[in-house]
Amino acid sequence: MTDRTSTSDTRPPHPAPDTTPDLSSRDPDWWRQAVVYQIYPRSFADADGDGLGDLRGITRRLTHLATLGVDALWMSPFYPSELADGGYDVADPRDVDPRLGTLDDFAELVAEAHRLGLKVIVDVVPNHTSHQHVWFQEALRAGPGSPARDRYVFRDGKGEQGELPPTDWQSVFGGSAWQRVPDGQWYLHLFAAEQPDLNWGHQEVRDDVRTTLRFWADRGVDGFRIDVAHALAKDLDEPLRDLGHHASGGEAALADFPPGTHPFYDRDEVHEIYRDWRKILDAYSPPRMAVAEAWVPGDRRALYARPDELGQAFNFEYLQATWNAEELRQVITGSLRTAHAAGASATWVLSNHDVVRHASRLMLPPDTDENAWLLSGGHAPAVDPDAGLRRARAATLLMLALPGSAYLYQGEELGLPEVADLPTEVLQDPIWEQTGHVRKGRDGCRVPLPWTTTGPSYGFGAAGAWLPQPPSFAAYAVEAQDGAEGSTLELYRTALRLRRKLIDGETLNWSEETPAGVLQFDRGDGWRCVTNLSPDPVSLPAGEVLLTSAPLEDGRLGPDTTAWLGH
Q1: CB-based burial of residue 485 (10 Å sphere; 0-12 exposed, 13-18 middle, 19+ buried)?
Q2: Between 203-217 and 270-282, two packed helices, what is the crossing angle to 10 degrees?
Q3: H runs (alpha helix) in 321-465
Q4: pLDDT, tens digit, 9 for 90 and up, residues 56-86
Q5: Please, which residues have CB within 8 angstroms of residue 338's CB and are 6 or more apart in sequence?
C-alpha cells in the first residue's frame, strides 16, 4: 500500500479538490437532517460496458440524485479488491480499483457532485484488509514471530501439532474465524478468510488509518461511513478465551457479557480510537462527518454517536422492526431518546446492500426465515409485488417524516423488490460458498439498476450486467417512471422536495388518540404524519393533505398508506 501524497509517487500530481461552495460550507451540521443515498458502485451504472459499475458511470448519473433531491451520496467501497466480499476486502484503501476507474475519475466525481450541491461520503473499512494487501503478503513471507505478523492477529493452534484453531470463535459468514497458513500458524478473520483482521493494538495500524482519513478528506470527501465500527478493539491477551455457544458473537451473545467486555465486539477501548479520529475530522473546515455501522444495542450504539467520536450511528432496530404500529412506535421513541442522550441526531434506514429490499421484506410474515425464503426463490411464502410496493411507499414516507437523517439505498426510489430467484450458479456473495450452500447471501439486493426499459442491461451499461436482471425490471426503470404521475420515483422526488421545506426541529409529539394500528405524530415545525398499518381505512385528522403514499379512499387513509398533513 502506498501513500498517494508521498514524493515517491511517480504519477502526475492529483488535481486539487473542488472548492465550489455547497451547503456544507454554510451549515457544518448538514448531516444531522440529511437524506443520504447509498451507491453500491458495481451495481449503479457502467460507463465502459464491461458489465461492472464504475466511477464514471456514477458521475454520469449524478443528475439523477440531484433531481431526486437527496443531500449526499455514500459510496460503498470502490478500492482495489478481488471481490471476495463485494469490495469490503480492501487491498489498498488509498486507491481506486482499476476496473472501476482512477483517482482522476474520483476527483471528477467529487467535483461534479459538489457542483450539483451533493456531499460525498465514502466507506472506511478499518477492521480488516484483503489478504492481497501488501502488509498481509509481507506477513506471510516473514513467518511466525515477525513484526509484520504483529499487524494482524496470528496465533499458534491447539492440539499436538497445532492443527486446531486457537479458539472456537466463529466467522460472521459461517465456519471458524481462524484460517491456517502453510507454516502452521492461524490468523483471525471475523468475516471471509480473504479478510484478515488487523491488530488495533499496533501503532502502525492506527497511524495508517489516520493517513487514509486524511487522504480522502484532502480530496474533497465530506464524510465517512465506518464499516464494522464495533469490532476494532479486541481482547488479545493470552490465553484467548473460548466462548462456547456464544462463539459467533452478535447482539444475542453481547447480552451475555457485561457491557464493553465481549472479546471482540463493542469493547469499551474502541471509543478511544474514535475520539482520536474526531480530532482529525474536526481539523477540516467544515468538519468531516462520520457514521458508524455498529451492530450493538441502542444504549451502546449511542456511545459511537457522541460529538467527540463519530457523531452518528446507524439505527438497525428500525430496519429490523416488523410492520407493526406499536413495535415501530417503541423503536422510534427509543431511537430518538438514545440519539438525544448522545447529542446526536437519529438515523433511519429501510434497505442497504446487506439486507432483503424492504419492498419484499416488509411483506414477509414476522416469523419468516428470510434465508429459507431466498432459497425458495421467493416463493415460500410468495410476495405480492404490488402489495409490497404499497407498503414500501408508506414506510418510506413514514421514515422521511422522522427527525434525523434518512439513508436511502439505490433503487428503492424505483420500488425495486428483492431478486430472490437468482440462479445459484450466478451467485457472487461469499456467504453462499462459505456456508456450504446453506445461506444464499446478499446478491438479490445488489442486482444492477435499470435505467431504461430496453437494452441488454436496461441502460445499466452497453452490454450485460455482472448479475442478471429479471425482465420485470423494465417496468421499474427510471425511463418508465420519469414524469409518470403516481410513480414511485415521482413520489420520492415530491417527498424530498417537501421534506426540505418542512424539516426544522429534531423532535416529534405522538398523538394518543388514534385507532389501533395507526401511527400519528406532529412535528414541531408545523406538520403531521399519519401512517395506517391496520387492515381498514381510517379517517384523517383535520389539516391540508400535502402528500400521500397511495390515493385516498373516499377521503379516508387506506391500509398500508402514509399521509403528510399541514396544520
Answers
A1: exposed
A2: 30
A3: 325-342, 358-361, 370-375, 385-401, 430-434
A4: 999 999 999 999 999 999 999 999 999 999 9
A5: 298, 299, 301, 302
**Degrees, nearest 5: CA angle 442-443-447:** 135
339: confidence class by pLDDT, cuts 50, 70, 90: very high
Known active-site residue 293: yes
C-alpha to C-alpha distance for 309 and 111, rounded to whole angstroms: 28
C-alpha to C-alpha distances, 98 to 45, 48, 120, 325, 480, nearest whole angstrom: 16, 12, 20, 47, 33
Condensed to tens digits (0 to 9), the pLDDT of residues 356-413 reads 999 999 999 999 999 999 999 999 999 999 999 999 999 999 999 999 999 999 999 9
Tens digits of residue pLDDT in 416-439: 999 999 999 999 998 898 889 999
71, 227, 413, 418: the catalytic one is 227
Query: What is the separation of C-alpha 179 from the centre of its chain, rounded to a whole number of angstroms?
Result: 27
What cell was used for 148?
509484520
Q: Is the pLDDT of residue 161 over 70?
A: yes
For the range 132-138, what are the long-range contacts, defined as Cβ-Cβ under 8 Å and sequence gap of 24 or more?
Answer: 132/80, 132/82, 132/89, 132/91, 132/194, 133/1, 133/90, 133/91, 133/92, 134/1, 134/92, 135/1, 136/196
DSSP letter at 237 equals P
* One-letter amino acid of 370: E
Reduce the DSSP state of residue 201 to 3 states and report it.
Answer: coil
CB 368 within 8 A of CB 525: no
Query: Which segments within 115-185 are labelled E, that is strand?
Result: 119-124, 154-155, 178-180
d(CA 442, CA 290): 25
Q: Which three cell numbers stand for residue 152?
A: 494482524
Compute CA distances 117 → 71, 214, 400, 491, 549, whole Å: 7, 22, 20, 21, 27
> Of 157-166, 171-180, 387-396, 398-407, which gets the smallest average pLDDT?
171-180
In the residue annotation, 227 being an active-site residue is answered as: yes
Under DSSP, the state recorded for 43 is G
79, 92 Cβ separation under 8 angstroms = yes
H helices within 452-487, ranges in order? Answer: 473-476, 478-481
Which of helix, strand or coil describes residue 406? strand
Q: Which residue in 95, 194, 266, 293 is the catalytic one?
A: 293
